[in-house]
């Protein structure tokens, strides 16, 4: 079985929400995410679901990236992806969360700011159930896209690799915050065994093999 994963493809990570964490071209990945999902057996998604009063929350990007003394909230970030706001919504063109086969909401607690979709905590002790879901459905391969390449996508991919899955990163379905950070993230994901693909067309033979 092969699955696809849309990581945090939310408006809070696009220029539609300039006061949050606008990733350049972040709103442009829905078509590619949908295309890769048509080639797999199961579709999974994740969302940040943060409190506006989280311990890591600051008012603007100039105050971001400062270290914090918490086990599971390591840096300050602008308020983003608060339930009930525009930034919490999935980008236009994606299904509703209820239309996915499995969906993860993460970062709900105000003292937790996880990056990966597989664990609720940075220390990776509290599973979101994603890895267990994949194992229960005999998924051995997964293709990942989403926002942002150099943070939540990177961490999620590494978690999936560490869980023993064959992971493909669809670069056409991702966007990153910082070009240097994206390059570093790609190298790190490859070191953990992830395979980079240019777009969904490379998935055709992969999905056939998995079936």
From TrEMBL:
Its EC number is 3.5.1.19. Keywords: Hydrolase, Metal-binding, Pyridine nucleotide biosynthesis. Pathway: Cofactor biosynthesis; nicotinate biosynthesis; nicotinate from nicotinamide: step 1/1. GO terms for biological process: pyridine nucleotide biosynthetic process. One of its GO terms (molecular function) is metal ion binding. It comes from the Bacteria. It is an enzyme of class 3 (hydrolase). Residues 7-197 form the Isochorismatase-like domain. Belongs to the isochorismatase family. PANTHER family: LD05707P, PYRAZINAMIDASE/NICOTINAMIDASE. This is nicotinamidase. It comes from Shewanella gelidii. The lineage of its organism: Bacteria, Pseudomonadati, Pseudomonadota, Gammaproteobacteria, Alteromonadales.
């Amino acid at each position: 079985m092969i699955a696809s994963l849309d990581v945090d493809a939310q408006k809070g990570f696009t220029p539609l929400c300039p006061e949050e964490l606008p990733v350049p071209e972040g709103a442009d990945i829905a078509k590619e995410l949908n295309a890769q999902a048509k080639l797999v057996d199961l579709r999974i998604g994740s969302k940040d679901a943060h409190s506006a009063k989280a311990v890591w929350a600051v008012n603007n990007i100039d105050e971001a990236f400062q270290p914090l003394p918490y086990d599971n909230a390591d840096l300050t970030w602008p308020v983003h992806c608060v339930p009930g706001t525009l930034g919490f919504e999935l980008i236009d063109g994606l299904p509703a969360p209820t239309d996915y086969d499995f969906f993860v909401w993460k970062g709900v607690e105000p003292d937790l700011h996880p990056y990966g979709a597989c664990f609720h905590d940075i220390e990776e002790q509290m599973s979101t159930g994603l890895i267990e879901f994949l194992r229960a459905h005999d998924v051995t391969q997964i293709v990942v896209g989403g926002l942002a390449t150099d943070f939540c996508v990177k961490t999620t991919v590494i978690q999936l690799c560490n869980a023993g899955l064959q992971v493909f990163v669809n670069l056409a379905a991702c966007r990153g915050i910082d070009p240097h950070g994206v390059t570093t993230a790609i190298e790190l994901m490859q070191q953990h065994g992830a395979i980079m693909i240019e777009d969904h067309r490379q998935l055709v033979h992969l999905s056939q093999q998995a079936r």
